[in-house]
From TrEMBL:
Superkingdom as given in the UniProt entry: Eukaryota
Bilayer disposition of the protein: Multi-pass membrane protein
PANTHER family: ABC TRANSPORTER G FAMILY MEMBER 20 ISOFORM X1, ATP-BINDING CASSETTE, SUB-FAMILY H, MEMBER 1
Keyword line: ATP-binding, Membrane, Nucleotide-binding, Transmembrane, Transmembrane helix
Protein name in the entry: ABC transporter domain-containing protein
One function term, GO molecular function aspect: ABC-type transporter activity
Keyword ATP-binding listed: yes
Xref: InterPro entries: AAA+_ATPase (IPR003593), ABC2_TM (IPR013525), ABC_transporter-like_ATP-bd (IPR003439), P-loop_NTPase (IPR027417)
Organism for this UniProt entry: Cinara cedri
TM annotation in the entry: 287-304, 473-495, 516-541, 553-575, 582-598
SUPFAM superfamilies in the cross-refs: P-loop containing nucleoside triphosphate hydrolases
GO CC annotations, alphabetized: membrane
CDD domains reported in the protein's UniProt record: ABC_DR_subfamily_A
Pfam families assigned: ABC2_membrane_3, ABC_tran
Length: 601
């Protein structure tokens, strides 16, 4: 065929690409004629995959030009070197997913699976990808590249790990595809013998195309019997004229316009549906994910309700009462006025009985002040209380003349330093008990008890029902759980998609990032709503924490949802900036911990 009559599917002109100043593609020119198989050969690291990705547009050239006949992503089928498929999906679901991304009808997908099965012979198509062998996953990956019957097929080492018989069968099929179905195939391979089947071969070394031509022409040119021998001879002559792989600075060339493959439309509901279905499967099939997102919070809500900030009870307080025997207080009644010289009131008993009536404390009498003081070294003791011998008398004198020269009206209380919550609770209860004593004193003396009350009236706008610490922070706990669960849901799905390469493969099939984010948003919002319902049911319904929602249930759920959505976007952002799974986990945990600490928890 005359040169001018040849139609080219792909033209790469003067392509340069470097990483860190080292040229991986060093001025490559290749021309791939339509309806042919073009084999790219070369040692590991010579730049074959980089060249393919530049042709596909997933990587950009630094200089040079790539001209593609195909204009749309759906016209090209790409099989990357790595699997880049979701192990958690079955073979059938994987085909359905990609088929739907390419907007194929269900019937069309079914027919295509049957056709591909005929020549690739998949294992049971209901097997999970993670459970099939390396060679079988390569077959599936190849089928995914062919599912939508593209015009241009780009395959990066498709036959690695596949047995010889099937390899031969695949090449026969490739030849049939180019001859009968007018497809163009670009293929990289390390098996030189199979490259014999290609119409044209390009040998790359150190980013330079050192030879290009049909297998027969190359064999003839190097006067050898086989292609392998021809390449060995070529490589040996190259060794002596080694192309430097050291820093090669690219000459400043004008960057030419490259053809970029486009998606047919930028925002497609059909693709969003396929993505949502895939994410849904990924969520409910991963049992650990399901456990962490749904079951673990339920356990935590339960643990929180049982253990956190409940009303305190059973705390031990050491007591030494010099005024009266502690046991004698049991039958004590406030009767009479302490101002009365003849009254035999012992107000220390009023304090003691008040504390006992709270059912929070276990009062344990000690005989010695020193022993009482030392009792706080025992972690079971939260306080030591001491009442002086003339406590009631001194108290009467203090009330009467505001004078207690001996300091006998002072009860002594030493509190634990170990536990902030317990200390404050005991402090409040002891102060309330003294307040109660004063009131009882005034009642006994027929005075108006209000005269001794603190002259302030507290009125709460809301929160009247809040009785315990757990009641007060239950909403904070729900809010933080919703935030955390949303961020780990979006963050973990996104990072696994990114690192396993399935995101890249989906993007190459036409999906764009906003579609991924929106589909994941649906899933995350559903999980969030389940979270809110379950948490409210456990914390308010089952454990009866008081609900006082002043702005209405809708606003409450909306505010929680907003928090979850913030968590969702933070998760996505962290997944985008994280380069490894570990960084992703550390960042997610760090941000969530900050959220726990900032509200003062
Ligand atoms: N993202 C990247 N950042 C830095 N260097 C890269 C990157 N991608 C590829 N390289 C480097 O570019 C060179 C060419 O890589 P490429 O994957 O194209 O080789 P290859 O010819 O396909 O090798 P193989 O046959 O082993 O797959 C390698 O040295 C590789 O380390």
């Amino acid at each position: 065929m005359a040169e001018e009559n040849i139609q080219y599917e792909v033209k790469v002109i003067d392509a340069f690409k470097s990483y860190g100043g080292i040229n991986v593609l060093n001025g490559i020119n290749i021309n791939v004629p339509t309806c042919t198989i073009y084999g790219l050969l070369g040692p590991s690291g010579c730049g074959k995959s980089t060249l393919l990705e530049c042709i596909l547009g997933t990587k950009t050239l630094d200089f040079g030009c790539i001209d593609l006949k195909a204009k749309y992503l759906k016209d090209v089928g790409y099989m990357p070197q790595d699997l880049c498929l979701e192990g958690i999906l079955t073979i059938k679901e994987t085909f359905e997913y990609f088929g739907r991304i390419y907007k194929m009808s269900d019937q069309n997908i079914k027919t295509r699976i049957a056709e591909l099965n005929e020549f690739l012979q998949f294992p049971d198509i209901n097997s999970y990808i993670k459970e099939i062998s390396g060679g079988q996953s390569k077959q599936v990956s190849l089928a995914v590249a062919l599912i939508h019957d593209p015009k241009l097929i780009i395959l990066d080492e498709p036959t690695v790990g596949i047995d010889v018989l099937l390899r031969q069968k695949i090449w026969v099929e490739f030849i049939k595809m180019t001859k009968q179905l007018k497809k163009t195939i670009i293929i990289t391979t390390h098996y030189i013998e199979e490259a014999n089947e290609a119409n044209c071969i390009g040998l790359i070394r150190n980013g330079i195309l050192v030879e290009e031509g049909s297998p027969q022409n190359i064999i003839t040119k190097y006067r050898r019997n086989t292609l392998e021998e021809a390449f060995l001879s070529l490589c040996c002559s190259q060794e002596t004229n080694e192309i430097s792989k050291k820093k090669v600075y690219v000459q400043r060339k004008k960057k030419l316009n490259n053809t970029r493959l486009k998606s047919e439309n930028n925002f497609d509901l059909y693709r969003i549906k396929a993505l949502t279905k895939k994410y849904f499967r990924m969520c409910y099939r991963d049992l650990w994910f399901f456990f962490i997102v749904i079951c673990l919070p339920m356990i935590q809500y339960n643990n929180f309700s049982i253990s956190f900030g409940q009303n305190i009870n059973g705390l031990s307080i050491a007591i030494k009462n010099d005024e009266v025997n502690y046991l004698d207080c049991r039958n004590f009644n406030v009767n009479g006025c302490i101002a009365d010289e003849n009254s035999n009131l012992t107000m220390s008993c009023v304090v003691v009985n008040y504390l006992v009536s709270l059912n929070r404390y276990k009062l344990i009498e000690v005989n010695d002040f020193e022993v009482g003081e030392l009792s706080l070294n025992n972690p079971n003791y939260m306080a030591f209380l001491h009442f002086p011998k003339a406590y009631t008398r001194a108290l009467a004198k203090y009330i009467d003349s505001h004078n207690d020269s001996d300091g006998e009206s002072l009860a002594y209380a030493r509190l634990t330093m170990d536990n902030f919550v317990f200390r404050n609770q005991i402090k409040t209860d002891v102060l309330n008990s003294i307040n109660y004593v004063l009131k009882q004193t005034l009642i006994g003396c027929a005075s108006n008890p209000k005269s001794i009350s603190v002259p302030i009236k507290f009125k709460n706008l809301y929160g009247n029902e809040v009785k315990s610490l757990a009641n007060s922070i239950v909403h904070l706990f729900i809010a933080l759980s919703v935030f955390y669960i949303s961020s780990i849901t979006s963050g973990n799905i996104m990072i696994s998609e990114k690192l396993e390469g399935s995101l890249r493969r989906s993007i190459f099939a036409g999906v764009n990032l906003p579609e991924c984010v929106l589909s994941l948003f649906f899933i995350s919002t559903i999980i969030q709503l389940i979270q809110i319902i379950v948490s409210c049911f456990i914390l308010f319904g089952y454990y009866s924490n008081p609900v006082q929602i002043t702005s209405g249930l809708f606003t409450y759920v909306l505010v929680l949802s907003f928090l979850g959505w913030v968590g969702y976007f933070i998760g996505i952002f962290i997944a985008i900036i994280s380069k490894t799974q570990l960084t992703n986990i550390f960042l997610l945990t760090g941000v969530s911990l900050t959220q726990f600490i900032l509200p003062g928890m």
